[in-house]
Amino acid sequence: MFEKLKQLFSGVEEDTAKTTMSLELATAALLIEVSKSDFQQDPVEIEKIHELLVRCFSVSLTDIEEFMATATALNKDSTSLYPFTRYINDNCNNLEKYELIVALWEVAIEDGQIDKYEDHLIRKISDLIYLPHTEFIRAKLTTSEKAKAK
Fold it and tell me: What total number of domains does the chain contain?
C-alpha cells in the first residue's frame, strides 16, 4: 500500500502522461476547453476546431474524429490546464504561443459572440503560458476584426 502511495506522489503517473502528450493534443485539449467554457459546446465551434487542427497540424481529415476523441478523453481526465500549458511552455516560443491564443479566440468567436467565461479562460491560458498581455490583446483584436470582416 505504501509503495502505491509513493508511486502516486512521486509523479510516475505524470511521467506517463508526458510521454503521450504532443503539441497537437495539448492544443486540441485547450481548444475543446474553450468551446465548453460557456456551457454550450456549439457544433460550429467543434467544426472550427477540426478546421484549425487540419490546417495547423498534420491531422488528416480521415483521422480527425479519432484524434478529437483522444483529445476529448485527455481533456476529460485532466483536473487542470497545467499539463497542457506546461507542455506549451516547454515546447513553444512566443510566436507559437501567440498563434495558439489566436486559435482560441477563433473558436470562442465562431458562434457569433465571446462569452465572459470564454474570455476569462483564454486570459487565464494566456497568463499560464506567459504570453505578454499586449499579445493577448492583439490576438483578441485581430480575431475580432477578422470576424467582423466576414
Answer: 1
With a cut of 70, list the residues of the chain below it in pLDDT. Answer: 1-19
DSSP of 71-125: HHHHHHH-SSSHHHHHHHHHH--HHHHHHHHHHHHHHHHTTSS--HHHHHHHHHH
The structure's pTM equals 0.81
Q: Establish if 6 belongs to a structural domain.
A: no
What per-residue confidence (pLDDT) applies to 32?
92
Q: Which domain does 139 fall in, by range? A: 21-149
pLDDT at 123: 97
